[in-house]
Amino acid sequence: MAELEEPSDVPVTDTPDPGALTETEKRDIVIRLAFGGSRERYDEFCDCVRNAIPEGTGVVLRGSAVTGQRWKDGAPFDADGPGTSDLDLTLVGDDVIRFFKVTGFFVPGVHSRPLSDEDPDIAPDLVPLRQKLMDMVRRPVNIQATRDFVMYLRGELLGQPYHTLIEKPERE
Fold this sequence. Notes:
Elements: H1 23-34, H2 39-50, E1 58-62, H3 64-67, E2 87-92, E3 105-107, E4 111-112, H4 127-137, E5 141-146, H5 148-157, E6 162-166
Parallel strand pairs: 2-5
Antiparallel strand pairs: 1-2, 1-6, 3-4
Helix pairs in contact: 2-4
């Protein structure tokens, strides 16, 4: 595994408006903030996720790793020290919904709560992936599942920024 690099000296507040960024620009921000500037660590993270999810599943990263600041209070990414900000991973598609128990949903069968320290038992089959990802990035990782239309609603209609880690294949 690559050595953890110190984050860039560029202040997080210099992160541009995520709504105006290209996927490449968002990826570069994510790599700088969440992966210590290491494209190798980012690629390893994506490969680990890709190998653990059903074929045809998309994966996005949301939250402060993309925006540079917490939604709740506007604090910069890792404001409380290195490794303190979490990564919010969303698995997008129909097959990933089955990983979550019926009690693990905001909207049953449609949009899950995040598998996290607060809800560690809602998706038992994803716990090993979550642990492996946290070991890789040395920070909390939350994993949520949603259907395509919810991701469309949140991203396109509500304008909530996200970065696509794994493209969901187009339906034939």
